[in-house]
Amino acid sequence: MKESVKNFIAETSFTDPAKIKDDTMLFEEGIFDSMGLLSLISFLEENFGVQTDDVDLMEDNFKNLNAIEGYVKMKKSYSEV
Question: Which positions fall inside the Carrier domain (predicted)?
Fold first, then answer.
């Protein structure tokens, strides 16, 4: 999952994938902005079947690959209940 998200981020932000590590701060390092976040949310919804609610739109959920992976796992576990 992380690899496909990483590749999506690299492609949409025109960033070398080698520069995106699991803990790279995507917003602080200027890799992603608010428009990139909207694209990422659409990608996650389409590819991983998660539904993003307004209350989920916090930078902490999407700040790096580790956070994104945790967010997707959390949303998928809630949808299974």
Answer: 1-76
Q: Are 65 and 22 in contact (CB under 8 A)?
A: yes
Segments forming the whole domain that contains residue 13 = 2-79
User: Taking the complete model, does pTM exceed 0.90, yes or no?
Assistant: yes
CATH code, domain carrying 29: 1.10.1200.10
pLDDT for 15-37, tens place per residue? Answer: 999 999 999 999 999 999 999 99
DSSP letter, residue 80? T
Model pLDDT, residue 80: 63
